[in-house]
Amino acid sequence: VMILFGLSFRTFKIMFYVGLPLALSILWTLGFASLAFHHLNILTCIFSCVLIGLGIDFAIHIVNRYFDQDIVSLDVLPRLEKTFRQAGMGIIIGGITTAAAFYSIGISGFKGFRELAFLTGTGILFCMIVMILVLPSILLWFSSRKGPKQRVSIAGFGLKPLLNSLRKYPGSLLVVSFIAICVLAALGISIKFDDNLKNFRPTGNEVFLLQDKVTAWLGGSTGKIFLVATDKSEVGVMETTASIYEALREMKESGMVAGINSVSKYFRAPSLQKKNMDFIRRHPDAFDIKRIQWTFNEALEENGFERLDLYDEYFGSLSRAFSPEKVLLPGLLNETELGGFLKPFVYQKGGYFKTVTYITPNKDLWSRADTALFKEMIARKMEERGIKGDCFQLTGSSILTGDLKELIINNMKSSLWVAGLIIMLVLLV
Description:
By secondary structure, the protein is of the alpha+beta class. The chain has two domains: 2-155, Multidrug efflux transporter AcrB transmembrane domain (Multidrug efflux transporter AcrB transmembrane fold, Up-down Bundle), CATH 1.20.1640; 212-287 and 322-395, no CATH class. The chain has 15 helices and five strands. Strand 3 and strand 4 (352-361) form a beta hairpin.
């Protein structure tokens, strides 16, 4: 920006005139960010580029008028006075409307955009103030030292031939402009929003290429989707989780998801456990441990094996498993060696029991459309199994990213309308 500015005014000394105010405005904004937010994020860190690009406009208006050939022969103070009479109001209105456009993004529910809006909008105002106060002081200082009639040759950028063409062929240029507007408007209306994060990745990056290979090897996404079921009782949440697991198993068998991991792989639904317990009670002979152990030992001897006590512990565990005393729930094993294994699947918080089922999609959910389709597919399957939507929630990095994209798009639409209204009000006032 500084090089272009120097080339435009055909002297690199002038870069100092505008470079110092720009640097001051960025430093002011950094100080403000430290006071207001105590940090920069991945969005607000770009504010300096925005300030340089927009703040240079204020300097262009001032410097261009100050070195205009019509007033360059005047003394320094009259030149500055005439400069701000002609360009001052435009600079102020431009600064206010530009800041207002950024502030309108602050209505976003996304914290990153709110901070970006507040920081950049305030930075624009700082830049405007610095250009109005500091830049004239610099011009006054150097003009006084070098003499009031210092001249600067401003590049024309070929505008003179263009203006001559406008005078000669105004009708033709209007027709060409109208055609260009129609073509570009048609293209603009049909443009699509690309929210597929995969398309933003650097091509040829080894990390992302490896991720694609791993996804292909696994036959599914490397990102898990978490389905969280909630109930006031542990029995209730285990019943819901069992129904969810059966529904997801059907989806896996039909190829709709690549993998499932759930506590229901290890714990049957309490209602099914009760049925099994009732069956054991009604068939005590079939589950008599002494008879089973005697049959096992007889089979060992018949096949030439020595009878030892190697399997006594196993038969003790089997006897407890056949005990029809109570339903086995994960909470009963929290203080055992299995507690750590069950922790990722079941937990209690705020008086509610929650279970987490881990789902592996068939592919990475890069776009909003893929994410929405996956959520709709899960919800429809759960509804078929009689599982209400308020009994479970879907989450995970892919789901959160999809929701964030939706939030950003909706907020940007609202911000566009708000920015337009604010600018119209400023211009009317």
